[in-house]
Amino acid sequence: MTKIEAIIQNSKLEAVKAALQEIGVEGMTVLEVRGHGRQKGHTEVYRGREYSVDLIPKTKLEMVLPDALVDKAEQAIVNAARTGKIGDGKIFRSRVDDAIRIRNDERGEGAL
Amino acid sequence: MHSRKTLLSVSLTAILILFVAQLLCAQTAAPAASPSTDTAARLAKLEQQTAEAKSSADNAWMLTSAALVLMMTGPGLALFYSGLVRKKNVLGTMMQSFALMAIITVLWGLFSYSLAFGPGNSFIGGFKNLFLNGVGGAPDADYAATIPAQTFMVYQLMFAIITPGLIAGAFAERMKFSAMVAFTILWSIIVYDPMAHMVWGKGGLLNAALGGQFPTLDFAGGTVVHITSGVSALVCALYLGKRVGYPKMSMPPHSVVLSFIGACLLWVGWFGFNAGSALAAGSLATSAFVATHFASAAAAIGWAGAEWIRNGKPSVLGGISGAVAGLVAITPASGFVKPMPALLIGLIAGVFCYAMVAKVKAKFGYDDSLDAFGVHGAGGTLGAILTGVFAVAAVNPIFKDAQGNPLPTGLLEGNAHQLLNQLMGVVISWVLAIIGTLIILKIVDVTIGLRVSEEEEAQGLDLSQHGEEGYYWETPA
Predict the structure, then answer these.
(1) Which CATH topology does A2-111 take?
(2) Do B315 and A45 touch (CB under 8 A)?
């Protein structure tokens, strides 16, 4: 099993979700997050005072997938979320030891 | 279709004939006996009914205005200010407005009304109207001859509520609630009541309508409300010191949305504040209403436009701040100026207050957190002076010669002396605000202590002062 964490532009969530559903990804967790990579932030001005905002709002998707689906899922995310500009985000993948379905103790890929 | 039309016109004609006939009969049937006494009685009755009708109309507008002015404090000012603070202080800031709606009301009933509007000397009223004694349904002809004295009293109360509320913008996010309550009570008695008496009270030093020595034109409270609160705010900001972390730490408004709603409520409520200050529902109220609206619009454009030029973008916060600045500046002038000067006053106020807030404050480095001084102190002072420039007798013939003919009012009408009187009003309100506020701050400082502890400030006023949160995070399903 592999965990995919994808940090994407907020505006790309719908497209990424649709692309993942199309290739058969059944579950995911979506979080509103803030952070920054190489992309610089922006400044906001309130009554003449400048505030620099360097933690930019992003959307993070987390999903644990059967290994067979991982490459396809990554490609789907990249295709749907890419604009080619700085700030498109990143994908991280990592091994997952086990999964447990709380309802019935099912384990492993069957629990996904 | 055609026949129906004919039927309609025939029946209308018939009704008309019947009506005229009845009128003629009634005239011929009128008794011939003692026509003169009868006419006199009917005239007297008519006059009484006319007076009652006018009184009802005026009273309806004044009660509406009183409600509008209360709406300026809650929710208007409460939302405007609480949107500008950080999340952890949203309730504490709302409470600083709301508490006044309760506290000042009680004071006003017990003694403050008497101190402000009861008969007294040039500086303060007396104790004649303690516990609202003698303030009932009959009008007080000195103040407003067509509305019950109680209406006048409750209308003025709403001004007394919002004025100390404005100061809260300067000590936001760091004052103890207990200290704020004590400060407000003392401030209301020591600064507001005398100032209101001097400008609006019968025999007050600056009263332009009721024989003051230095007749200052202040229609709706430029000196009484905005200069006193704005200047006191500056004193508070300097005395209390900066918020922990200011100006290094980032403290942007947590919700311009709340501020937006609050500012728009202030704009609407201000019609009660300014047009209501005519104390009647006549053309002067209309004139003040129009001047108020025009100044606010022009000031919104002025502030946001200045930002657009300087920063490349007009902000929402700039637009609403400008609108409020325009409302502040037009307050003393609203019952004395025509619409085009009102536009000009607004435009100047928008740009001027923007410069005060964005440039002057940054230069001196004081932490007037929500710009109570930059908007109310600066805008109020500007408005008081410009009133002396643009006031005209055609709008409000407040000065008259012995024969009752209107005399020139403002500078542009040739009454240059009025500018001096306006400056007198400005100086007196500045001095009273500075000295009064310093004394009160000192008293509260040594007895209760003004600021929350550093830990409490980090935690926020909501939790540390009120034991609750504006945005409860762990909401159970």
Answers:
(1) Alpha-Beta Plaits (3.30.70)
(2) yes
